[in-house]
Amino acid sequence: MRLFPRVVSEAEAPYGAPTNKVRVLPPEVAHRIAAGEVIERPASAVKELVENALDAGATRVKVEIEGGGTRLLRVRDDGSGMSAEDAERAVAHHATSKIETAEDLAMVVSLGFRGEALHAVSSVSSLTLTTSQPGAPYGTCVRVIAGGPARASSASHPPGTTVEARDLFLNLPVRRGFLGTERAEARTH
Q1: Mean pLDDT, 10 residues at a time, over the chain (189 residues)?
Q2: Domain spanning 27-187: which superfamily?
Q3: Residues with Cβ within 8 Å of residue 26, at least 6 apart in sequence
Q4: pTM greater than the 0.85 cutoff
């Protein structure tokens, strides 16, 4: 028996192959696990999205849920909205408007700053982000399904942002299995 199993590459031990050796997870699997750490249940997704709305200067935030938040989470705000470029960038990993350098971490005054929330939610759901800035002739709609590529288009939207996540944990059936009933999840909001 070996005390220290060697690390094997994905090519040597394809994901899912039974082995007792330590191996590096494929990037898409590691990505899903990391997203699941930020978004543990529907209530944590709502918290992150509401904090984003407040950081955007929203004075009104409306939260809608269906199916305890697993079928639908929708957070609408009247905040500052985003430009088309920022909307597309906002769903990327570690994309944030709050900090630029490590020194900025000591001066964070916003609720969120890591650039994880939208990326994490988009990694485990079908996410639609629709946004518009005050005075803009049109808004932007960005769609991401389970961490896939972001697809952007023009959209009509009042100033502010709406984030809609459908089928939360669609690609993480084990996580879905750990959730309570729809009713229990709805009470945690």
Answers
A1: 46 46 58 62 92 92 94 96 90 67 58 72 95 95 94 94 95 77 65
A2: Histidine kinase-like ATPase, C-terminal domain (3.30.565.10)
A3: 10, 15
A4: no
